[in-house]
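Hi, here's the filled form for the chain we discussed.

Project: internal
Contact: R.S.
Residues: 732
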Amino acid sequence: MSDFTMTKGDDGVAVITWDVPGKSMNVMSMEAWPLLDGLIDDALADEAVKGIVITSGKDSFAGGMDLNVIAKMKESAGDDPARGLFEGIMNAHGILRKLERAGMDPKTNKGGKPVAAALPGTALGIGLEIPLACHRIFAADNPKAKIGLPEIMVGIFPGMGGTTRLVRKMGAMAASPLLLEGKLNDPKGAMRAGVVDEVVEDPLAAAKAWVLSATDADLVKPWDAKGYKMPGGAPYHPAGFMTFVGASAMVNGKTKGVYPAAKALLSAVYEGALVPFETALKIEARWFTNVLMNPSSAAMIRSLFINKEALEKGAVRPKDVADQKVKKVGVLGAGMMGAGIALVSAQAGIEVVLIDQKQEAADKGKAYTEAHAQKGVQRKKVSEEQAQAMVDRITATTDYDALKGCDLIIEAVFEDPKIKAEVTKAVDAVTGEDCIFATNTSTLPISELAKASKDPERFIGIHFFSPVEKMLLVEIIKGKETGDVAVAKALDYVRQIRKTPIVVNDARFFYANRCIIPYINEGLRMVKEGVSPALIENAAKLVGMPLGPLQLVDETSIDLGAKIARATKAAMGDAYPDGEVDEVIFWMEEQGRLGRKANAGFYDYDDKGKRTGLSEAVAKQYPEAAEQPDLTLVQHRLLFVQSLEAVRALEEGVLMDIREGDVGAILGWGFAPWSGGPLSWLDMIGAPYAAERCDALEAAHGPRFQCPELLREMADKNQSFYGRFGGEKAAA
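And the returned structure, exactly as it came back:
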């Protein structure tokens, strides 16, 4: 069975069906393009064929492009990968343009065969670019389906004609959320936006009927008709000029210049709007090639698409453990974290027992889900019935006996080992031997906490990030005695709640916090040194961090930072490395500048909690030095302290898979997504340069920048992390 097949009906309609064998959703492969091309030629040449319908043999239309196509295009031209890419892209443009013109006379725009797309469900990426080349798009009335062009989310942009066609169909302003933000719509939303033409009960039947009734005028795309004017105005039109000025400002404001795909997309749109359609496609192909040749795009695709998907599908799950799907979960502690865990569990259809010391607190935790459910109703994302069912799955109580029958317990009580030990023993008294106990802790060693359990083999750490319902990452921590069943249970649960897991071994701060705390601390060190807070914050954002270290510590709260500092110092004794940072954090604590929650931190805030600017009080206590470091030095200090911790985590066996190191960094704390993660970034700059830079930073700023032995060895051998540790599993 091939990816594309065609049947010709007695009614004169040729139906091209896309159905990739062995895949739950269609993806476009290198081998599928000539198949599609041949079927189009056959249908256009057959006089008995009056029109063409392209549809899918699955519940969805397509999920996008098989990204191996990019690698094969690069390889096709030997030592000139850019040429291979450009020629491969232009070949695809030629096939879709042939479909779009459908045999029309180039002068009269008559004599073509109508082509319709019938979408039974989700249509993403190339799965929408092909329909955009058809003359009419019919989508099934399927509210669960997603239609859009999400390429920008993984560091590329729609380069098979989607960018040019969508802008010419809708105008730059209307197309910008779909192209620059990767916004996805359900079918009715896509119709309102002007992406699809009709939403119907039976898209295949409607498409056939339209094909048989279509006239020559129905086939001509607006950009192929005489007198075409771009909706909203082309760049040289007064209205269009303002649109492109605004778009440029918006793109640079959001990306800070570190995401090449957004700038390339805008360039393709702007330049393409100044020329005829055929030339615009060539411009799009050139910019798409430019982006695909950028190492940032390759790293983003690898981390945010290939590796993220692999982790979500169980790449690191113990293979010999049976399915551990969670049926009933107990959540201990109904504070912000526990309430969030209860919410995402109930959303996933899991029965939840939410326990707190006081019934009032437990009820408040359940109310968090009620409020979230009602927002969903107001936004028409769920029905009243669905919202009520979600709330009804949660039992809020103070009674530990309600935990009987739970197969997973997640403890989210106060970060105190004694309290956690008491809770663990109380749970053990009522749960069965097949129940897994998970502690949601961000700093306390799992192996120590497991000592309170009757069965340490079934004790594991599940570290959620706040707010639980918004953060995509969950960090699973194996204690010294944690068994495979507990790991499998945690991974299967994370998959149920539709988040991305990483599995790490137990160590102080695990993986995420051991990397993010040095980032915050480096910002605080620089404040003490007299580096301008504005330079620190903007340097971070200009290198792709979502928040500067000072804003981040304000958001997480100063007193939490002070508490972690005291606990770490008590545990590490003379080996404690952050005494200089403590001076700043403890002064802030003494002054009551505890961050956003206190409306005073490194930033000042108004009564509504909105930042009004960097604090004058902090500037007075730590005045700026007369001579400021250059931007690159500040950026390197902020990136290297995180990246070197990632290397040490790998070196020490805390990280067991480099894919988890990169995906976890991006999803957990927002490490410069354009880089693909800390290990990808080190690969990008090269181990020899990274080691050399470590030496310079260590000499100037201290031993925290000391080059790890692993990185030094890799530098000597000119190795990369993905070359040494990735192999097939990181590239597949």
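Let me know if anything looks off before we file it.
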